[in-house]
Amino acid sequence: MSRYEKTFRSTSGEKFRADVYDVLKAFGVTCPARQHAIKKLLMPGQRGAKSTVQDLDEALVSVSRAIDMVRAGLPEGDTLTGEPMAEPEPKPEPKPKPEPEPKPKPKPTLVTWERCVRIKPWQIGDRLCFVKWYPIQNIPEHWYPIDSYGRSIETVKQLPEGQQP
């Protein structure tokens, strides 16, 4: 409920609420200068922004403007050019925000693995050794990379991070 709404009683005794805009519509007031003057005259100084005298002065100016418009032969609600006022253009509907493109999956980081051997001194005579793959930057102590030197042994692999040979 607007603070400008007032309760009225119809001629049949029914109560109803209306504000200045309802009154303007009910009486068919379409001239903007008259509308402004009526709003000022209905509640002078009661809207909190201006004094009673200021509202009455502004109403007087608006009535003078309405008289000038009638003398100029402008029908109510028309513009100074004589053309009917255009209906306000409807606001365009906001465009939906485009959905963000999914981020591409990151390329897997490749880790270089090297085949390593661990030979303990007492195993040399038995020709016994252990062979295992290790990431090139994490080769433990006492494990040594195998160099194939022309042999057909695959000693280096590049695999995505998390995969093991």
Describe this structure in words.
With 165 residues, this protein is an alpha+beta fold. The chain folds into two domains: 6-71, no CATH class; 110-160, no CATH class. Helix content is 23%, strand content 18%. The protein has helices spanning 20-26, 32-42, 52-71, and strands at 6-9, 15-18, 110-118, 130-135, 144-145, 156-160.
Kindly estimate the percentage of residues that lie in beta strands according to DSSP.
15-25%
Taking all Cα atoms into account, the compactness measure Rg is 45 Å
Mean of the pLDDT scores? Answer: 78
Could you give the distance between the termini? 76 Å
Domain unit count: 2
The secondary-structure element order is EEHHHEEEE
Poorly predicted runs: none
- The count of DSSP E runs of length 2 or more, i.e. the number of strands, is 6
Judged by helices, strands and strand pairing, the structural class is alpha+beta
The dominant shape is rod-shaped
Biggest sheet statistics: 4 strands, antiparallel
Helical stretch tally = 3
The helix content, as a percent range, equals: 10-25%
